[in-house]
Structure formats: structure tokens, C-alpha cells
Amino acid sequence: MVKIKVNGKTIKAEEGQSVLDAAQASGISIPTLCSQDALKPYGACRLCIVEITKNGRKTVETSCTYPAEEGLEVKTDTPRIIGGRRVMIELLLARCPGVPSVRKLALEYGVKDSPTQMKKENDECILCGLCVRACNEVVKAGAIQFAKSGLYKIVDSPFHKTADDCIACGSCVFICPTGVVKKKDEQQAPGGPKRQIENWQVEHKLKECKKCGNPFSPEPHLEKVRQEKNLPVEFFNLCQSCRQYPVVDEDKCLGCGGCMENCPMGALELDDKGGYDKKAKVYTQNCTACHSCEPICPVQAIS
Amino acid sequence: MKINKADDLKKIKKEGMKLLSPAALRITVGAATCGFAKGAGKVFEALKYEAKKQKVKADVVVVGCNGLCYAEPIVEVIRSGKPRITYGNVPVERVSELVKAIKTGKLVKDLVLMRRDEEKSPLEKGAVIKYSKGKLSRELSTVKEYRKLDFFKNQTKLISSNAGTISPERIEEYIALGGYAALAKILSALIPEQVIDEVSASRLRGRGGAGFPTGAKWKACRLAEGDRKYVVCNGSEGDPEIGMHRSLLESDPHLIIEGIIIAGYAVGAHEGYIYVNDRYLLAKERIENAIKQAEKLGLLGKNIMKSGFSFSLQVKRGGGAYICGEETALLNALEGSFAEPRPRPPFPAQKGLFGMPTIVNNLETLANIPLIVLKGGKWFSGVGTKLSTGTKIVALSGNVTHPCWVEVSLGMPIKSIISLFGKGGAGGKKVKAFQAGGPSGGILPAKALNLKLDYEQLCKADSLLGSGGLLIMDENTDMLDMAKFFTDFFADESCGKCTSCREGLKQLQQILGSVMEGRGTKEHLSLIKRMAAAMADTSACALGKTAAVPTLSVMKHFPQEIEGRLMVKKRA
């Protein structure tokens, strides 16, 4: 734990935690368009800038990328910082006048519109990189990336063709702050239900549940998860709702923990029932109903 | 043979000396890229042909660039007992005439530039080669001794002293003039901390632009924890008007290699990479050959000079991007990723290449290391000024009479550099403005010529020492044109990662375009000022931070050239 000062107030931060995260955890708000809890900080939008004084030296840094260390002094809203943020908002507004999150920030910072002297475009992408980073860091499909450099930078599929590695999971759609990345799920397509993500020229079939018939996830997405978690081939034949979760018969359960050790999802824990008594408990939010636990139990307490 | 101890070096030194100052004849041709561009390749071939045809026994060999770019092709004649004669602007049609003169011991008077009576090396005391023995003939004494020429008299050639003398393809010649003696010294007599102490005592600052104290950087890396450490030599040289890294690599590649190995020893790294601008085909070829030669002699590789210290070095091709001058963008490029800057902290000394402690040093910075080791940090700190120690290679180009590159003590007035080496504005025109340190340095007016070339003075003038480029602009130069040119340069080279640089440059370009088309207003100018301040504060790296400097400097120093072009509001 380290102590840093933000706008005169001393707050606690974990060693190495970003100044942005530490500030927000203490209720101090700093604007950002490109940072996300699940992703490594990138530093593209430049809105989260703050003044940092360290060892008597003052610099302007992006708070999302700056690690907290003992004794840092941070100022989040000086005239210099506000001025800098306003210019970033004006520049983004000139590029993406229709993007709601940019308009919202403009309202907050009293920016009516980008200056008339700025050339206006009508882009919907603010180049925050969230889609790229999600695809590469979390999903690890690596289907999309930044392409072209400098002023012409875009997010694209390789060679502007169909993104071969895309599993149509839709993480990019979910995480996009402007809505420019879109998916279209068609239940009644002639070849069967499918998902289209036009941005990457991708189209994949949606798997239909063998029990209820509802299409629930793109096939390549399911296949990737199945391979990574070593699940049986038939595992994703059923959708989430139809998959049966294990039930522990506590009368039979010995509390040996064998099922817990074998659960690939960490969905089984030993619950303390008092005294020496421990019983297996299923946490359905983590459970994928793979049924690995069932055959392990020496007393067939799981069904 | 492998060099296992200092005595082995002495053997090679002797061989090198025999080549540099032979019993017979040595004829050299200045053949770096600049020389080749002016026909040195053809002159070299012609010399070999004519020497054979006219039965003149001579070692005809290519050497590097001595900085006299305006006088190339340069041919030098070294004959036993006689001073070294330098011929300049030698056309290929007169090579047979030249060889004939050499054969008969005569001079080709109208091509003679200078003579050299002895060779001195900054690494050793006294003269290392005495070319001229005995009294000079009448004719030879009329040829100017090179140290009397303005061009050489006013230079302090420490890291460029071998350039133009030795063949970049012969390691023996490098060793003959004191090469690898520094490496031998540290491996046998100094511990890494002592090497760092010497570099710290020298107060050497990074020659890439930021001017960070090299000793401090090395110390931080030495203390950092990591499974392995790296040395990266930054030879990306992206500024549009310079080519010193190229000249050094093509003229004296071993100097860089030695500097890198010493750096590795100091910080505890066993792997090094030289990142070379991909346009520099000849430089890359020469440094790769030099590495092979050093490996053959056991000066690179496992257990160097039986010291137990191993170091391997590889050349990596750059993509030609200016952004790779930024050390973290370079590291990304080396890792096979996009050349974009990384957030700092952590700094490369703690987490660099592949997340390991790495020092990224400019090529010129590393070229100073062997000298500092041999003569001591304290000696080095006496060259230049108190805060800007040592020398700087300056590339003089633009509207100057003699485009060239020189090595001067830091602290030399820029005015003197232009007059003594460049011989003033080309065609006798007045110097109107100049740019120091590359596009980030902005454009300064003639009255700033009194500034001294060092880190502090240039920084105070909102410019920077940077790469050491000096671009001269004469009275016919349109300042708005220059502002647009450099803004376009930054726009081409921006990596596009951060909003401020990418969008800021986009708007800057079109605003300048509007002003040039006569549609500019005062509001455009105040917007430029606001954007420039935001870009300087918020950009992720120095490219974005200084992208508006060319425009701002023209607005500050040549206001009439912009304000005079603004749209005049029509009265109702």
C-alpha cells in the first residue's frame, strides 16, 4: 500500500496501481475514453491527463498509465489540465461529431462545438483501441488490429479482408464506446441462424441448442472455448439454460475436495459447516456444466 | 587467431600500421555514401585499373568520409617518408593523369587540397604515425598542412578522428590507431561499476536529443532486476537533413561496436542490437562485416579476451520511421510490434526489450565510450562546457556554401560553425534563418546565430541540440513554406496513437494550408497556439509534443510572414 495526494487529499493506492484507478476508487473522477478495467492501459485518448509532481519535478501524464508510488502529488483539474482536455475534446468533436460519449464530455467541459477553424469529419471511430485490445489481450483471438499509421490510422481486419481469426464473440461490439462496431444476429437466415460483424467482413453460424432449439453463440467462439478448457465434444450441444448444473448430496458428501481439485472452472468450493464438517458447494456462476466432477466423486454424491 | 590478451592486440596493431603507413604506396578513396553519390566508386575502380595498367604498385583501398562532403571524390596518397597528400574533387577522367603523377612522384597541383605530416589519435599521446620523414621538398611545403585549414583547425575530432583515414573493412587499421584498447583495459582492470563511474564523471549526455546523462541511465539499468539485460544502439537517424550515423557506421564501424560491448559490460548485458535505418544499405553492410571480423578475432562472442565476459551483437533493420528515434517505439519495433511509444514509467532501464532492463543509447553517444574509458571521465568533462561536455557531430546543410559534417566542442557559437566550416550562405546570400537539432528544434532567426551549440542555450531559445543537424536558410526562403514542410514531415511520421498528435497535426496541416491560400485569420493563429500548448502537454512522446514547434517558431520569429498573409476583413 502506498499513500498519494490527489488534489490535496491523501488517498491509499496499491503499489503499481494506476493513478486513475486509485483516484476513482477514492471517489475522485477523472475522464477517460480508452481505459477499461479488464485491459492494460493504452493511453490513446489523452483525456485522463493530470499534473504529477514527483521529487519536486512536475510533469503532465496520463493517469491511466502512471503507476502510483509513495509520495506522488497529483492535481486533476488545474487550468492547464482543463485547457488540455478541452482541446482534446474539440479535436475529437471535429473528428467524430456524432459520437454520444464525446458529446457528453463536451457538455461537461463547456465545449459547445469544435472551433470553426477546425476541419470537420464524420468518423464514428475515436481510435481508442478498446476493440483491438479486447480481441488481443482477453479473447486472445488476435483477429483485428490497428492498420495504416499516423493520420490515416484505422482499426481493420488483416489486409482489409475477412478477419480469418475472428470467432464472432462480439467482445469488440460490447466494448466499443461509440457503437461503430456492430453485430447483426439473424435468427431466420436461409442457411441457419448466423451472426455478421460487417466491420471485419465476418459471418459465422450460430449454434442451435439441441434441446430448446434457440441459437445461442457463434460456432467458432464455442469451439475456441471448448478447446481451451478441454471440454468434451458434446459440451456445447446445449445452451446455457438447458445445461444441467451438478447437485451435491450433502448426506453422501465426505468433504474430500476431490471434485474441487478437478473442476476446471473453480466452481466448486468446500463450505464450512461447523466442526470438522465440510461439504462441497457448487457456484453456478462459474459452472459450465462440463460434468467433470460427477465421475470423480468416490461416493457418487454429485448428480 | 583470437585475441586473448593485450599483447595479441599489439601484434595486430603492428599489422595495421604496416597497412596505414606502408613501405610502398597506399592510395585511398573516400567512399562512404556521400562519396559514392559524387562518383567515388568510379574513381576507385579507375584507380585500380590505372595502377595496374601503369604498373604502379599500390594498395588502393576505400576509406570512410572525412567530412569534406563538398570536395568529394577525395583521393589520398601515402608514400613512405612523404606527407599524406589529399586531393579533392577528383574527376574520373583525370585518374590516369593522377596515377601518372603518383608514379613519377609529382603533384597534380590544381587538385591538391592539403597535406598531413603526422597522424594523431585522441586515444594515445604523441603522433601515432609519422608520414613525413626528413625535410619537406619546396613543392610539398607549399601545400597547406591540414591543421592550418579552417575546416580542421576549428574541429575537435575525438570520435571522428579515424573517419577518412582507416579502411572500414580492415579491423587491423582500427586497432593500429588504438582500437579495442579500451575494451582490453576494462576486461582486465576494471569492474563494471568503475566503468559506470568513469562515464558518470565524464558527464556525457545522450546525443539523441533528450540529453539524458548516460552514466545515470547505465547505473539505473545495472541496479535493475531482470533475468537478462540488453544494450540497444539507436542508429535510426530519422531527421530529414542529416546522415552522421550513416557516416560513422560507414567510416569507423568498430568504434561503435567497441562502445556497445563496453556498455554491455557496464550494465551486465550479454546481448546487443544495433538498429540501423533501413535506407543505409552501405552502412549496414559495413557494420555487419565489422561484426564478423570482430567475432573472428574473439572480440565479440563467448569469453572475450578470456575475461569470462560474453557478448553477442546483431544488426536489425529499421523500417525507416522517424518515430523509432523514440526509444520505446524502437523497442516495440525490435519486438516485432508497432513502432509506437510506450507509456513511461516504467523506463527501459527497468523494463525495456521484452520487459527486461535495457539501455537504449544513441549511436553517437556510444561512439564516445572507448575514449572516456581510455582517457578517463575527468579528462572528457574538460572538453566542451560544464553542463554540455564533449563534442558533437554537426551536419551543416541547406543554403550553405560548403555542405559538410564536422565534430566540434560543445559550446561553439553557431555563427562560427557556419562561417568557418560552411563558409557562409551559398552564393553569397545572407543567412535568414536556421534550424538546429532537427524539425523539433524549430526555426530560429539570424540574430540567434550568436547562440552557442549546447544543450542549455538551445533549450532556452526553445530549440534543441537534438541530432546535431544545422539547416541553413537564406534570404530567399519563405518561412511559411518551411513551417508547412516540417509540419507535413511530422504528419507523415506520426504513429497516430494519441489524439493530440494525430488530430492536432491533421488540423495544423489544414490550417497552414488555409493560411497559405490566403484564407487565414487571427482566429486560426490563436487556435494554433492553443493546440500547440495542448499537444506539448498531452502527447505521448516528443514527436507529438514538438510537432507544432516549427509553426510556433515561425509565428514568433517571423510574424510578418504569417500575419502579412492573413485575410483582410472587408469593410461593410
Textual characterization of the structure:
The complex is a heterodimer of chains A (303) and B (572). By secondary structure, chain A is α+β, with helices and mostly antiparallel strands. Chain A has helices at residues 19-25, 79-95, 100-108, 130-138, 171-175, 219-228, 258-262, 293-296, and strands spanning 2-6, 9-13, 49-54, 57-62, 73-75, 145-147, 154-156, 184-186, 194-197, 202-208, 215-218, 268-274, 277-282. In chain A, the strands form four sheets. A five-stranded mixed beta sheet of chain A has the order 2-1-5-3-4, sandwiched between helices. In chain A, strands 8-9-10-11 form a four-stranded antiparallel beta sheet. The longest helix of chain A has 17 residues, at 79-95. Chain A is flat. With 572 residues, chain B is an alpha/beta fold. In chain B, strand 14 (431-436) and strand 15 form a beta hairpin. The mean pLDDT of chain B is 94. Chain A binds chain B through residues 41-47, 49, 60, 62, 65-67, 80, 83-84, 86-88, 91-92, 94-95, 115-119, 126-127, 146, 148-153, and chain B through 338, 343, 345-346, 491-500, 502-507, 510-511, 514, 521, 523-524, 527, 530-531, 533-535, 537-540.
